[in-house]
Amino acid sequence: MTAVPSRPASNRLNRFDNQLWNRFVAIAQPYWYPTTANGGKVFFALLALLILFLFALLFVIVSVVVLVLQAVLPDFMNETAQGLVGIVKSMLQSPLIGVVIAALLIPALAFFAARRQIISRRQQWVLLGLLLLLSLSVSGMNVTISYVGNFFTTALAKREAATFWRFFFVYAGVFVAATPIVVFYSYTQDLLGLRWRDWMTQKFLNQYFGNRAYYEINFERDIDNPDQRISEDIKSFTATSLSFLLLLLGAVIDVLSFTGILWSMSSFLAIFLVGYALVGTVIAGLLGRRLISLNFNQLRREADFRYGLVHVRDNAESIAFYQGEDQELGQLRRRFVEVLRNFRFLIGWQRNLAFFRTPYRYATYILPSVILAPMYFSQQIEFGDITQAGFAFSQIFEAFALVVLQINQLSAFAAGVNRLETFTEALDANEQPAPADAAVIKTFEDEQIQLDQVSLATPKGQRLLMQDLSFVLQPQQSLVIVGQSGVGKSSLLRAIAGLWNSGAGQITRPVLSEMLFLPQRPYMVLGTLRAQLLYPNLSQDTAEEKLYDALKQVNLADLPDRVGGFDTELDWSDVLSLGEQQRLAFARLLLTQPDYVMLDEATSALDLANEQRLYQQLRQSGTTYISVGHRASLLKYHDFVLELKGDQTWKLTAREDYVVDTEAFV
Questions:
Q1: If I label 446, which of 37, 235, 580, 635 is the partner at 20 to 30 A Cα–Cα?
Q2: Residue 436 has pLDDT above 70, yes or no
Q3: Under a CB-based contact definition with an 8 Å cutoff, are residues 480 and 629 in contact?
Q4: Residue 10 has what pLDDT?
């Protein structure tokens, strides 16, 4: 089988190694314990102490229940669980009771010492403690069922009806007691996973929208589909982390519990099982390493294909006008071919692993009987011992062979961990200030707009757009930026807004809360017409009369009646034409009444009469504004003209002195 080519930058993300473990801890730990020096070690120490405490607590609970039942139902307990009663009494009278007391006190003291770090996280620790206690209880129920099943089967084989029915009712009683434990076990796991997902999603969203990371991250080639990472990868991470924790804990308990059962029957059987499971785990681990990279690439390709479908939906009208169905179908097919190609390799490796894993597991169904059969035929053990050994064998086998049985889920989980961690690294990097010697444009705040020797480059510095640009725009003045397409007109507005800062020089501008930016294609929010008009100040309480007045000024007075009122929710990008969207954006401007406005071809879809109407209102408001445009008709509404050349040079002219260069309006 040939290897699937993958991006070199992601090769390091496709391995089970210490780095993967560190990534997992970096993502998981903050929900449980602050990210501090040695915080990871403290967290896992507390987790281990919590499990120790719960073991001791469960022993106390079981002992109390057994002693109470012995006092209330002595005959029943002597007939069904005399050995258990004896074990409990002997342990309570032995030095081991001191170990139990220590197992209760030491964790309690440790959590008390760490109370300042975990007090704000107490709810998740309480839920985790309850979940682990229920997990221990489920494992205890399995041990109980193995013994009851032994006696039940032995009585059936010996045709002892009275014993059979007695243990039948015990069996039924165990199931009745186990039902609420198992139900609440699953519910608590889901509830804790839900709360963890809520916390992580809020954390990622805060970082995603902080410092405009949602914008900056578009320039990171390795960070694809952030929407999938926030919605799906976080959900999978929280649910799978809890699942594997419980599987691991259950595996440890099963090994401790059922190995003792097997050892009491046959030491050879217990030793053979350990060796059998360990060898299988190593082989499966070697075979499964390739699955991580394949799952990682599968997540990427599935997300790319889904994004292509969403892109078609969002641009359906434009595609229909261009009659671009064949091209769009072609690009979707190409993306889907990549999905199928990688998935073909994935299922191939899963098939190869299944050739080992399937017989490896089937053998466990017969091995206990084969090994114990001579002892049964020589009457050294009862028939029920064989069934109990089979049950114990399967439990221990699954515990040791956790990697073998869960390799597909582990590889998919590892891929998700890597995607989340690279996303986290990008978000954290965005929060870090630029190095003191970095080539960036410095920004200051004042009551005017001033550029001083600004040289602007595209993000990552691939291309220099303009050099040593300087001008001052006083309050209530206006400037129009003209030039051929691609010279950097819109990029200059991005620099003033602080979106782009690659280059040199300094920009002085008012605080961003006093500025409003109107792009060529206005942003239509998901919400009501009222939300469209008040965006981004959605908390503003504005009377409907004022909203009507703003719409009237932009020649959209009939819009509320046409769509069903201000509280109607529609897909406004489809309902309104681009010209109506631009006029609606101007209505936002009139309602917001900012002191400074940046307009990036904000009237390009309007006729000259509507353009004049809007700009006259803008000039009469006394707002300071900068426009970008390709129409010579815009000149008369501005005080100054800044013409950007294609050779990184520029020219600033008073509007009355500007000689129209027809090439600048192409």
A1: 635
A2: no
A3: yes
A4: 44
- Domain membership of residue 2 (yes or no) is no
Among 95, 113, 131, the domain boundary falls at: 113
d(CA 491, CA 519): 12
| SS3 (DSSP) at 651 | strand
Q: Do 151 and 71 share a structural domain?
A: no
**Nearest CA-CA partner of 89 in 107, 101, 71:** 71
Which of 369, 397, 431 is where one domain is finished?
431
Give the chain's mean pLDDT.
Answer: 82
Does residue 36 fall inside a structural domain? yes
Q: Are residues 276 and 248 in the same domain?
A: yes
Mean pLDDT score, 561-583: 88
Give me 270's structure tokens.
């217990």
Residue 3 lies in a domain: no
Q: What pLDDT, on a 0 to 100 scale, did the predictor assign at position 639?
A: 93
Number of structural domains (the chain) is 3
Question: 389-405 in b/e burial notation, b at 16+ Cβ within 10 A?
Answer: bbbbbbbbbbbbbbbbb
Q: How many CA atoms lie within 13 A of 367 on its CB side?
A: 21
Model pTM? 0.67
Residue 142: CATH number of its domain: 1.20.1560.10
Give the residue carrying structure tokens 């608590």.
188
Mean pLDDT score, 596-609:
91
3-state secondary structure at position 434: coil
Residues 480 and 519 in one domain: yes
Whether residues 109 and 119 share a domain: the answer is: no
> Same domain, yes or no, for 611 and 635?
yes
CB distance 464 to 423 below 8 Å? no
- Indicate if 494 and 345 belong to the same structural domain: no
Q: What is the mean pLDDT of residues 430-449?
A: 76
Peptide bond into 536 cis (omega under 30): yes
What tokens does 42 get?
Answer: 């403290």
Collapsing DSSP to helix, strand or coil, 528 comes out as: strand
Estimate the share of the chain in helix, then strand, then coil, as percent rounded to the nearest 5: 70, 10, 20
pLDDT band at 405 (very low <50, low <70, confident <90, very high): low
Residue where the block lists tokens 């600048």: 664
Residue 6 pLDDT > 60: no
Distance CA 326, CA 337 (A): 16
Query: Which residue range(s) make up the domain with 488?
Result: 442-665
Write the CATH number for 470: 3.40.50.300
Query: pLDDT exceeding 70 applies to what percent of the chain?
Result: 90
For 461, counting Cβ atoms within 10 Å of its Cβ (0-12 exposed, 13-18 middle, 19+ buried), the class is: exposed
DSSP 60-90: HHHHHHHHHHHHH-HHHHHHH-HHHHHHHHH
Q: Do 482 and 615 share a structural domain?
A: yes
Residue 344 and residue 237 share a domain: yes
Is residue 331 included in any domain, yes or no?
yes
What is 466-510 written as a DSSP string?
EEEEEEEE-TT-EEEEE-STTSSHHHHHHHHHTS--BEEEEEEE-
Q: How confident is the model at residue 330 (pLDDT cuts 50, 70, 90)?
A: confident
Distance CA 505, CA 62 (A): 74
Q: What is the H or E stretch that residue 356 is in?
A: helix 325-362
Q: Supply angle C-alpha 107, 112, 117, rounded to 5.
A: 110
CA distances from 460 to 47, 225, 259, 264, 443 (A): 44, 20, 60, 68, 18
Please give the Cα distance from 444 to 266 (Å, whole number): 79
Q: Which residues, 6+ apart, have CB-to-CB distance to 214 below 8 Å?
A: 208, 226
